[in-house]
Amino acid sequence: MTLEAVDHNHNHNNNHNHNHDHDNDHAHEGVERKIVLVGIGFDECGRELLDWAMVKVAEKGDRVIAVNVCRNSEFVAKYESLLDDYLSDFEGICEHKQVDLTGQVLTGNSVRKVLVREAKFYSAASVVVGVSKIKPFGCWLSIAKYCAKKLPLATQVLALHDGKVVFKRFSNGLLSGMLYGPQ
Questions:
Q1: What is the arithmetic mean of pLDDT over 67-74?
Q2: Fewer beta carbons within 10 angstroms: which end of the chain, N or C?
Q3: In CATH, what number is assigned to the domain containing residue 113?
Q4: Mean pLDDT, residues 80-103
Q5: Per-residue pLDDT averaged across 6-31, rounded?
C-alpha cells in the first residue's frame, strides 16, 4: 500500500506516467489491471464503502485508489496520517485478493470535480462513491450523477447507501437508479 498527497493543481508528489506503464507489471500474467477509484471520508461509512469496493468491484491484480478530498491544505498532513492508519486495516484483504491499495489526500473545493479529475487521470474503470443520507427527488446522488455525466462511458459509476447500490451507470453507458435489491 502506498500513500501520496496531491495539491489542487494535480502535482503528484510521486511520479506517475500518464499512459499507465506502471500497469505492465501484471502483463506477463495476462491480467489487465483495472483502476477502481473510491471517494472516502474518515468515518465508518467510508470504511464500509472501501471494503465493499475491495470485495465487490476489485479483482485480482487491480489497483484500488482511496481518495479523500480536503478543502483546506492546512489539514493535509493530519489527513495523510489518518489515511495511512485507515488503509492499514485493509492489508489482509489486499493480500487475499492480490489487489494493490493506494491512498491520496487531495485538496480542492469540489469533491465531485476532484473525483472526476482523478478518474480521468488514472483512466479508472470504476468510480465508487457513498451516499450518507437519502433525500427526496434524488439530490443525494449529485456526486454520482456528476461523475456519470463527466466521465467517459467506459467508466462504471456506482453510488452506495448502507451497503446497497442506489445508482449505477454501467460501463456501456446505461443508467440504473434506486437499486435496492440484493447486491
A1: 94
A2: C
A3: 3.40.50.620
A4: 94
A5: 41
Q: What are the tens digits of pLDDT across the range 28-61?
A: 355 578 999 999 998 888 999 999 999 999 999 9
Please state the domain count of the chain. 1
93: domain range?
2-11+31-177
Helix (H) or strand (E) holding 157: strand 156-161
Query: Is residue 23 situated within a structural domain?
Result: no
Is residue 24 domain-resident? no
Inter-CA distances, 74 with 50, 70, 71, 79, Å: 25, 9, 9, 10
Helix H, strand E, coil C: the string for 47-79 is HHHHHHHHHHHCCCCCEEEEEEEECCHHHHHHH
Residue 176 bridge partners (DSSP): 168
Q: With respect to residue 22, please indicate whether it lies within any of the assigned structural domains.
A: no
Amino acid (one-letter) located at 169: R
